[in-house]
Amino acid sequence: MMADVSAEQPSGTARWTFLGSPRLIKVVLLVVVATLVLGPVIVLLRASLAPQDVLPFETSVFTFDNFRQIFAGDDTVKLLTTTIVYAAGSVLLGVGAAAVVAWLTERTDMPGATVIRIFLFSWMAVPPLVIGFGWVLLINPGNGALNVFARSAFGLTSAPFTIYSFWSLIIITAFSVLPTAYVMLGGLFSNMDPQLESAGHVHGGRSFTVMRRITLPLLIPGILSVGIFMVMIVVQAFEIPFVVGLSAQIRVLSTRVYLLASPTTGIPNYGLSSAFGVCLLGLACLLMWVYFRCVGTGEKYRVVTGKAFRPRRQKLGAWRIPVTCLVFALFGIMVLPVLMILWTSFTASYQVPSLAGFANLSLDNYSRALASPFAQQAIFNTLILVLASATIVMLLGSLIAWFSVRDRGPAVRILDILAFAPTAIPPVVMVIAILLVYIRTPVYGTIWILVLSSVTVQLAFATRTMTSALTQLHKELGDAATVCGAGWWTSFRRITLPLLRVQFLSGWLFVAAHTSRDLTIPLVLMTSSNVVLASAIWMMWDFPDLPGASAMAVLLVLGLLTVVLPVQILANRGRRGA
Amino acid sequence: MLKVSHLERTYPAQPGGAAVHALKSVSLSVEQGDIFSLLGPSGCGKTTMLQCIAGLETPDAGRIVIGPQTVYSRAERIQVSASERGLGMVFQSYAIWPHMSVAENVAFPLLQRGRNPGREQIAQRVDEALAMVELAGYGNRSATQLSGGQQQRVALARALVHKPRLLLLDEPLSNLDAKLRDTMRIELRQLIKSIGITAVFVTHDQIEAMGISDKVALMRGGEVVQVGKSRDIYLNPHTAFAADFMGSGNLIPCTISDMGGDRAVATTPFGRIRARAAAGLRIGDDAVLVIRPNAPIVDTRPANAQGDAAQITGNVASVTFLGEKIEVQVRLPGGYDLVTTMNTFDAPAEGQEIHLTLPAERCIIVHRDNAAASTVRDAELAGVAA
């Protein structure tokens, strides 16, 4: 037996094994992530302190002029108040509705809960850009479809709805907050230990008392932290304020930053734009700090445990039918803009939906769009962008996650913080910073600068997903491979990654969906050669070619749905089985 | 075969905690072919020790030699990585990879470090290894379809398939249910002995350690307290901790009042008892008298105390029925309750007068533990373990 030993010993180390050493990978990761994240932030800070009409590297002058200009007028105060009221209002509506729907689907006997769940989880396939366009077509005061209907039905002289108001902006944003908030709250509601409520019932509490005194107080920290998180998201959001708010002269921080950097007329004012960007960054960081404070206190309650529960379901009784109708009506309204876009995509030129109009519908827009080299280029670029950035960012996130879970050292702490930082950096700010960094390099103008930006923006999400997946994985599974003689890289590739394939795939899909629907990055970095579907839709809309833009939008939504929907249905089935 | 000398490991302080000294200059030596157990309460450093031997944990100082190869030496700046040490290991959770079949799990070690012995050779060795753990024909099953006992056998096959020079086992039986644990313990020992491989076994269960190993190192607070055959530690513990952890017993605080040869007289609350004395004790020392529950010869009538044996009389305070035996609490003069075991069929009545004969060779006087110091240490280590 022991004679075998010498034969089994390594005969010598292979020449390239040092490339697989974790220390080298750690250093490379650190350099890559620092370049991705720190580079733009530093350039942004530099640009905010530079004179207005030059690029940050072309000057050695430091000046506070930009900040002085920002804080001199009343404009900035108004901009900040608008931004905060906008965010708070839409989150209040959106998260409130999401909490009610989550309670109805997870904790009551409302019919159709599965359909609602799949619907809301798949909603990420619909780009905010498309929703914005849909609403413009529905309720613009001139020929918005709903306004036309209302006028002819009730004989009104003026339009009852208008897209160009602060309230419309808030309500439309609330609809886009709802699905995300629902996804976050659903788990919270369904994972709550039913024993906590049973204890209330056993000790004499009636249903309503138990809900008011036990269920609600237990869930409030969770709902609150979701709310603050969503405020953070909405403050950073760009597309809906851009599509809906600008025509209404409603300016928020994110659109202001963009307009200064890419004005419709005149030259870009990178200095002032960066200074506003720094302000938005500050606001986002503040919200992040508040979020972590709240999550910290929420931890006290710990109602969500790892165990899977079958929570007790409240009987709705007589309320069952009206409540169900109400919820489905709500989703009907959510779907309206998409239907409107779908209608427009079949028309030769935009017209209000009518029975008579059905005769004139055709697929011309689709064949026209698919035949044009412009659209073909956009589809091809979108594919490259989505495949490359989702794969790169998930691999990068997995590697960072491995080090942050398994290897605890000062270098890893820095890596962790760097990878998390993009959460606090609004995408529009990040992209303008990236533009400033790369504008003089050959990467600018290619599709790869979009890939680079998407990777940076999605890095925090990828790292967080893989970190939480990896913490669930027993450390001994990797150790076993190491003791068996596997090197670090083999162990990561053969054991860790395959075991995390489900989380990797769902993270990949999330990143892919969000990259393909995002307009911020392609719009800021747009040149003639790197147009993707989202920016193509925007260009055609702006041209204006509403039917063409609608056809492209429908194609994008369909493409996303074919990927997202089967996964959500499968996931829901798996949930049933568990 | 395995030599560990002056191994040190301190875990740096986590936020809100103090640094933990998990290994304090530990030295050990394991002979070729022995099954060596590291036994101790949780947080005693036994798992850290095993991880250091495996190479999964890096010590701060010391030296580890496996066979002819130094795998770690602080002084010589040698550190062989875990994957290059050529060991086999069975993990507490078994760590069977759920995305691979049983055969793929077992074949894994054969394919590492640039080796590929060829398809046939692999199949043959995997079959051999599976047959060895009585899982022949299970190769194509998914690892997730196996029961706990079968998973453990797969883990064992995987740890042995590449004929490692040393087998490490980290509490391999702790996840099995009680009956299965007993059978597996016996099978495991037979298997390891039949291969002739050297094994290091970590456990917190004294029965497991006694049943499986040739030698036991009893650990506490990052130090090895006593090394020896389990029988030796049971019969001749040096300290109250060793006596208490290996088996159970009555630990009676006492003072040594007389000594002669290896015998001493202990003054206890219920009288003076003659017993063997651990090395290093002197007259006047505060010590601990260990009386194992099965040491006293129990009689309902006064017996003649012969030669070296002490005779005490007490009353039965309570009787606990445990199946094969009963546990009897005897109230002794001075108010001390002594626990002793008796045959189930000889159960005395509560309150009955009972006479205990304590032969001197069955009792031993040991060193007191430094209670204050060890409590602090236990708390620290428990903190790390959690």
Automatic annotation (TrEMBL), chain A:
Alphabetically ordered keywords of this record: Cell inner membrane, Cell membrane, Membrane, Transmembrane, Transmembrane helix, Transport
SUPFAM superfamilies reported in the protein's UniProt record: MetI-like
Annotated compartments: Cell inner membrane; Cell membrane
GO CC, one annotated term: plasma membrane
Cell inner membrane keyword on record: yes
Keyword Membrane (UniProt): yes
Domain ABC transmembrane type-1: 80-291, 379-567
Gene Ontology biological process terms, A to Z: transmembrane transport
Topology within the bilayer: Multi-pass membrane protein
Transmembrane region(s): 24-45, 84-104, 116-139, 159-185, 216-238, 270-292, 319-343, 378-405, 417-439, 445-463, 519-541, 547-571
Primary location group: membrane
Family as reported in the entry's similarity comment: Belongs to the binding-protein-dependent transport system permease family.
Protein name, per record: Iron ABC transporter permease
Organism annotation: Microvirga brassicacearum
Source organism phylogeny: Bacteria, Pseudomonadati, Pseudomonadota, Alphaproteobacteria, Hyphomicrobiales
UniProtKB/TrEMBL annotation, chain B:
GO molecular function, one term: ATP hydrolysis activity
One Gene Ontology cellular component annotation held by this UniProt entry: ATP-binding cassette (ABC) transporter complex
Record's keyword terms, sorted: ATP-binding, Nucleotide-binding, Transport
Membrane topology: Peripheral membrane protein
Subcellular location: Cell inner membrane
Positions of the ABC transporter domain: 2-246
Gene3D superfamilies to which the protein is assigned, alphabetical: 2.40.50.100, Nucleic acid-binding proteins, P-loop containing nucleotide triphosphate hydrolases
Organism ancestry: Bacteria, Pseudomonadati, Pseudomonadota, Alphaproteobacteria, Hyphomicrobiales
Entry similarity comment: Belongs to the ABC transporter superfamily.
InterPro entries, per the entry: AAA+_ATPase, ABC_SmlMolc_Importer, ABC_transporter-like_ATP-bd, ABC_transporter-like_CS, Mo/tungstate-bd_C_term_dom, NA-bd_OB-fold, P-loop_NTPase, Transp-assoc_OB_typ2
Organism: Microvirga brassicacearum
PANTHER family linked to this entry: SPERMIDINE/PUTRESCINE IMPORT ATP-BINDING PROTEIN POTA, SPERMIDINE_PUTRESCINE IMPORT ATP-BINDING PROTEIN POTA
Annotated protein name in UniProt: ABC transporter ATP-binding protein
Keyword ATP-binding carried by entry: yes
Primary localization: membrane
Domain of life: Bacteria
